[in-house]
Amino acid sequence: MTDRNPRAMSLRRPVHLRRAPSAGRPLLLAVLVALPPSPAHAHAIDGNTVADGLLDALIAAALLLPALLYLRGRRRGLLRWRDGAQAAGLLLLVGALFGPLEALASQSFAAHMAQHMVLVALAPPLLALARPGPAMLRGLPARLRGVARWPRQRLLRPLTNLSRSVRATAVLHGLTIWLWHVPAAFELALRNDLLHAAEHLTLLASGLLFWRAVRRARGSAQGTALMWLLLTLMHTGLLGALLALSPHPLYPSYALRPDVLADQQLAGLIMWVPMGLVYLAAGQWVALRLLRPHGAAKPLRA
Q1: Ordered alpha helix ranges (H), 79-132
Q2: How many CB atoms lie within 10 A of CB 51?
Q3: Which end of the chain lies in a sparser environment, N or C, as judged by fewer CB atoms within 10 Å?
Q4: What is the mean pLDDT of the chain?
């Protein structure tokens, strides 16, 4: 009995470092349940079965691994809304890349645009708010944490520095959106699985960098963040308007649809209105923080 008591006391003492109870596991279970057998690039035109299966497995692993590490490293007392933001962001990515939306994207440009909206304007802000990085690092085995810090400090340092500038990330975010919606680039991505995966990866990565920079903005940088959110709202709205108001089909892969113009108009409206509302809501959030008295708001540190 004397041998057990000190050990029991030592396990109870650092309560603030204990991992979350099993109540946090619905995050992983939800992601696992939401992963259907649908391919993550069903609307790519060319490809072979083996390469497609390997690519699907890599994408699925890239979604499941963060959830596993987050749950393993999550600390008791973490704000519940961060759990909700993390779960919602991952579920949106799973739904966009593996759910019915992915299958519909091979037939409908509007569904494809909805998928892109998830990758740039829905999942990234939720994941930026969740701030899963520290929990994921703690979720690694102790012997691997030092190894993981090396690429984070060396290889990822340019991305970390970039994510501190709202202007730089907003420009990168905008260029990525416009370049992938140029008809020639869009068609190439539809015909090549690897290029299509690169399209999704760059859209998601540019979104994560931009929304992280917006979340981190403090002081006068909040005014800059507000300006670039409004500029992003305007230029994505312009792109949506060009798609919606075009008198002829812009993307040959969808030109065989009997309602091709209506489908393209709906795609443009998705980018123009719902996606614009996300940037508008974020701008209002930043404006409210900017108008608060100095020191009234607790900063959300990265």
Answers
A1: 80-98, 100-104, 109-117, 123-130
A2: 11
A3: N
A4: 78
Instruction: Report the interhelical angle of 193-216 vs 49-73 (nearest 10°).
Output: 20
With contact defined as beta carbons under 8 Å apart, do 222 and 289 qualify?
yes
Long-range contacts of the stretch 285-294 (C-beta < 8 A, 24+): 286/214, 286/217, 286/222, 286/225, 286/226, 286/229, 287/226, 289/222, 290/222, 290/223, 290/226
Listed by start position, the domains of the chain span 22-291
Q: What is the pLDDT of residue 92?
A: 93
Q: Any alpha helices (H) in the chain, and if so which ranges?
A: 4-12, 26-34, 49-73, 80-98, 100-104, 109-117, 123-130, 133-139, 142-153, 157-162, 166-180, 183-191, 193-216, 221-245, 260-272, 274-291
Cβ pair 70, 137 in contact under 8 A: no
| CA–CA gap between residue 74 and residue 133 (Å, rounded) | 10
- pTM, two decimals, is 0.76
How do residues 10-43 score in pLDDT, each as one tens digit? Answer: 444 443 334 444 444 555 555 554 555 455 555 5
What is the spatial distance between Cα 27 and Cα 68, in angstroms, rounded to a whole number? 9
> Among all chains, which residue has been given the structure tokens 């998601």?
204
Q: Residue 243 in contact with residue 159, Cβ under 8 Å?
A: no
Determine the Cα–Cα distance for residues 131 and 75; give it in Å rounded to an integer. 13
In tens, the pLDDT along 63-116 reads 677 766 666 666 654 557 777 788 888 889 988 988 889 889 989 999 999 999
